Amino acid sequence: MIRDNEISLHEFFHVIAKRKAIVILCVLVSVLLATMLSYFVIPTTYVAQTSVIVGNKADTSKQTVQLNDVMMYQNLVKTYADIGQTDEVYERAANKLNNTISASEISGSITIAPIEGTQILTITARGTSAEDAFKMATEVTNSFIEVSNEVFPAGDIRIVDKGKLPKFPVEPKRALNISIGFLFGLMIGIGIAFVLEYYNNVIETEEDIKRFLDVPVLGVITVDNE
User: Fold this and answer.
1) What angle do CA 208, 210, 211 make, to 5 degrees?
2) Which own/partner pairs from 220-224 qualify as long-range (CB within 8 Å, at least 24 positions apart)?
3) In terms of CB atoms within 10 Å, which of 68, 133, 147, 205 comes out highest?
């Protein structure tokens, strides 16, 4: 039973101890749900990444690069990033993968983005297995270079990083999800404990008499149910 707007730390822990069964139950249920979501509901996702650098074929003989050249290269990078996200690239990649993954699935799993302030493009693939992610990243990169050389051969595109087979999934973050589930369950359990205590009008212990009635306990009458 809580009647004051403010409670002491002792009273806080008294309520938690009194309603510990509810708190523990809420924590267990929340952790169990978080575990089930992490292992059986949230899909496992692996990420593989490659990178290419974009230069200008017309200027490959230059020994120095001017600021205007860098700006031009960066504009080329943006152009090639758009080329890399075309259906032609995804369809060729799907063909290279023997259509085990469709072009539409590839388009939803690939991100091609320039690294700001550089001439480098990153090609990131997300897959349900490490092999799928790595193969997608590799074949999209190869298809991207092929299509770019055909439709806009002004740039000199070269692979900087071929990427590698990812060892661990990036999602779900099971430890984090379970930790969040624990904290969420703990907060819910504590909240329920204090709500029940607030609406509890029954004085149950000697300590309750001293705390809420501010009178001494002269004695205790025991009841024999036999």
Assistant:
1) 65
2) none
3) 133
56 sits in the region (left: phi over 0; alpha: psi -120 to 50; else beta) called: beta
Q: Which domain, by its residues, includes 20?
A: 9-40+172-213
Are the beta carbons of 59 and 131 closer than 8 angstroms?
no
Q: Whole-model pTM? A: 0.72
Mean pLDDT is lowest, of 41-45, 159-163, 197-201, for 197-201
Q: How far apart (Å, rounded) are the C-alpha atoms in residues 169 and 191? A: 35
Task: Say which CATH number the domain at 104 has.
Answer: 3.30.70.1130
Whether 221 is in a domain gets the answer no
CB 63 within 8 A of CB 187: no
The upper half-sphere exposure of residue 214, i.e. CA atoms within 13 Å in the direction of its Cβ, equals: 0
